[in-house]
């Protein structure tokens, strides 16, 4: 899944879109994995992204999750939108690269609509 999430972290489409009986695995910046939130993130098998040292590690973990039939959620901007108007930032290539590396795995683009704000 490739949702676009607004600055408040709002995406009902993600909640609806993963209603397939499988828990989603989100890619999230490594800083989210510090302290108590990190304990929870690791316990529910979320995927840390370390942009500073080896973002390839997250790519490999996401590919492994996809190959094992899991749902992986990646933000196409590489982050949550910070724009006050909710406009998307520049898109990254991670979702496309995961799709190319894992042929046959469906890509489900989603977004939040103004009615969800």
Automatic annotation (TrEMBL):
Domain Phospholipid/glycerol acyltransferase: 17-112
Pfam family membership, one: Acyltransferase
PANTHER family named among the record's database cross-references: 1-ACYL-SN-GLYCEROL-3-PHOSPHATE ACYLTRANSFERASE, POSSIBLE ACYLTRANSFERASE
Tree of life domain: Bacteria
Keyword Transferase (UniProt): yes
InterPro entries in alphabetical order: Plipid/glycerol_acylTrfase
Keywords: Acyltransferase, Transferase
Matches recorded under CDD domains: LPLAT_AGPAT-like (cd07989)
Organism: Nocardia caishijiensis
Protein name: Acyltransferase-like protein
């Amino acid at each position: 899944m490739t949702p676009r999430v607004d600055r408040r972290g709002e995406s009902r489409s993600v909640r609806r879109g993963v209603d397939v009986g499988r828990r989603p695995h989100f890619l999230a910046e490594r800083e989210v994995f510090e302290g108590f939130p990190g304990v929870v993130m690791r316990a529910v098998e979320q995927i840390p992204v370390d942009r500073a040292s080896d973002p390839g590690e997250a790519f490999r973990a996401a590919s492994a999750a996809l190959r094992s039939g899991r749902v992986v959620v990646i933000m196409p901007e590489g982050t949550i939108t910070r724009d006050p108007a909710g406009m998307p930032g520049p898109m990254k290539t991670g979702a496309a690269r995961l799709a190319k590396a894992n042929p046959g795995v469906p890509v489900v683009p989603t977004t939040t609509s103004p009615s969800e704000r």
